[in-house]
Structures are given as structure tokens and as C-alpha cells.
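input
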Amino acid sequence: MVRSGIRPIRAALALTGVYALLLVAGTGAASAGSPGGSTHYTGQLPDGGDWIADVPSSWNGTLLLYSHGYGPTIAADAPDPVTQAALLQLGYALAGSSYDPTGSWWALGSALTDQFQTLAAVEQKVLPSAPKAVYAVGTSMGGLISALEDQNSNGRLTGALTTCGLVGGALNLNQYQLDGEYAIAQLLAPSQHIQLTGFVDGPKQGFADSSASATALTNAVQAAQATQQGQARLALAFAFLNVSPWGDTIPGTKPPVPGPMPGIYDFPGQEQGQYTDYTSGLFGGPLNPIGFIVTGREQIEAAAGGESAGTVGVNFARVLESSSYYPEVRALYDAAGLSLQSDLQSLAQNANIVPDWHAYRWLQETSVPNGHLQVPELDLHTISDPLIPVQQENWYRALVDRAGSGPLLDQAFVQAQGHCNFTSADIVAGLQALEARVASGSWGTLATAGSLNTAANGPTMTGLGGGNFLPFWPERLTGAMYPFSFGGGLDFFGGRTVHGARGARLLRR
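output
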């Protein structure tokens, strides 16, 4: 049943090729109709955005406030249709918003307000009674939004579930991605003058300027893979980008079947996995991770009014030496007969991108968590994610612990490749573990791999894909910024002291 008396849902944006695919596969656009036995509602937010809600006839009293990921601003209330149907069958009511439809796809300027306004509207206009519990659930960029909702709950939420969440925040994301892009451009295509920042075209122009840069970077990566020297330099760039070494697949399998994990000393195998991971199409489409992150930078710059990251003053040698990828890079450089020191010096000497202080502050204020959780939170992450590296969970755990909120957070990991590549059973099992944490007051063994697999593979999860959780602890995020100010997120970043806009000091581990 569709009830449209509140407001008919706005027609979906006309999207081309891969971004339409990304919206469905990566950000979880809800299907137009609702599964049987539920009622679909729509409404409008003060900023012109849409909200939607689906309420099952046998509502269990719990509302899930869903935050979709990066992409076109279309309202969604679940990560995918199968998970939506499963949650409604279990009795959960679902709600979510589009965020501000006139702004950037990096919607952090409005998302928090839009989501809480959606919650208020659904509670007032849709639900038959006040919910007994409200859980924030988010995917990818939406996982960051859910983490921000947690720290701004103020009595409105019961808990939060982030899936493949960008919990390291936008400043970390911008900086380590720029480190890697710059290393590719400088070491593998130094004569091409590839544009890395300052993009202005956007979705209406087909991301023309950033897409051209993404193509040039992809071509440089593909050419480099043909030689031993190129593979060594790619390993360096992949280290800055935090690319998983478990990215290779079994040739000829459709859909691709993951290959075996490379051994701890199989450095060529690790680099091959990273190369496959970063040049393969996302969600079965043509856009690879390089294209995604470069065009994504265009949207983040549009939202922030400039580029928050920089290369000037970054101590690339120091960043690499503190990275878990250092043994791989060192071994491949030695095997190729290249000087790692010379390449790192070249990166430092040719760096010329200065961060924009105003953009930095805007992202700090809107798009970086501070770790002060108010309600229990469970983070789920695949161990090989090409867009939001699992190492972000390491940084976020340290942030939350330092803020004194450690007992509220638990993290669980799925042995899978791909961005947000969860089964519906993974998500439902995580939600049920979070509910049990709220009821019991402590995590105990609720979110261990064994407990989650038992739940995800149980008889009530038939047809939902099962679970593949594993005990796992992610390595340090390469190039991560020190979280100095826990009342308001991050302060500064970088590798050594320089003087950029407003004399910003660049400090980074």
C-alpha cells in the first residue's frame, strides 16, 4: 500500500550509467513500491528534500533511521531491497531522507538536520505511537552520518549501526587519497601535469574535469603494472591510499570470486591484489575506485568551498615508515633496483598543493566525528574495501577510546571484498546484536565473529546470504591525522610544520 496524502515522492533523478548503479548498489536506494503488508509514506523537508517511510502492519515498535551513502540525493530507507523486505518482515519501521537536493552529493552540510527532521516528521505524522526504540543505520557516507547522529543523539536515538562507514571522517579521506593520487601523478606520469584538485564541473557536466584526471591516473597505473619498476612505485602509491592487498579474483569467474589471500611475505602477490582492487569496476560497472575517488573529490570540494588537503610540507618518508605497507614497498623497490629514498624526496620536492583553511574548517565542523558517543554503536566493515579502507575503523576506535566512550563501541568484520559487500544476514545480525547490547548494558560476546555468524546463519535468516564474520583487527590508517581536539574533532594535519592559509600547521603521524 502507498499512502501519498502527505506528499507524492519526487521523481528519481535522470542518471547516467554508473552513478545510477552506484546509487542502487552502493547507497541503497529504496524500491518504488513497498513489500506486502506495509504502508509507504512520503513527505518533504524544509530544505526541499524528501523523506520516505515504510511501516509494516505488524510493527514491532522499533524505528530504523537510515542514512544513505554518497551519490544523487534520492531518499532511501534501507541499504537494498532484499534487506528492506527482511527488516519489514521482522516488524521494523524504516525511514530516511534524500538530504538537501540542491547541494553537493557530499551532503554533510544538511544531512544531520535532514535526518533528525525526518525522525520528527515520521514520529508525528506516520507512526501509530511513539517508538520504543530508534536506531540510526547508515551505509558508507551514511555510516559517517550515523556516527555523527550518535554523538548528537540528545535522547532521540537508542543506538547506531554503521556499515562500511566513513568513520575516519572527510579530512582523513581527502588527505590520504590526495597523497596516493599525487604519488601516481608525480612518479608515473610526471610530464602530464594531471589536475588533482580545484575541480568545478560536477554531475550536470558529467564530472568532465575530474573524470579526465581519473582517466589519466588510471592509464598511468595500467601502464606501470607492466614493469617491475612500475609495480614498486604503484605499491608506494597504494600504501598511501590504504589499498587492501587482498583484491585479486579467480580469472574468468562471473561474478568475480575472490582469490586466496596473499601470504605475509608474498609482496608481488600483495601488489597484484592491490592493482586488481583499484582498477576493477565497482558493483559490476565500468567506474573503478580511481574514478570514484577523483570525481568524489570534486563533490567534496563543492560542498566545502575548496580543497582541505595539501601536499606541501607532507613528510612522505615519515608517513610510509609508520605504515603497515612499508615492508611490501621496501621489498619491491629493492627487487626493482630503485631508490625509495630518491622517490620520496621527489614527492617532497615537487609538492605544491596548499590546503584551503576555510574548506578544512568546514569539513572539520560538519564531516569529522569527535568520538563522544551517547548511545551504543556497532560498526560493520568488510576487510577489503577499495573505497573506505577498513583501517578507518582502527583510527575511529582510538578516537572513541580517547574520548572516553570506548565501552559504547564495538566493531565486527566480514571476510569479503568490495565496498559495502554485506549480505542482508550480516546487517540483520548486526542490528540484533546492537539491540541485545542495549538490553544487557554491555557488549560481552554479542558482537564476536562466532556470535554474529551463529545469528546470520540461523534458521530465521534463510535466503539472506548467511554470514562470514571473522576475528580481525585492522592496521593503522596510513597517513592518518592526529585527533588533537576531542571536543570538536581534528585540529591540523600533515607531516612537518609549514605555513599555509592562515598559517595552518600541518601535523600528521
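quick obs: The chain has a mean pLDDT of 89.
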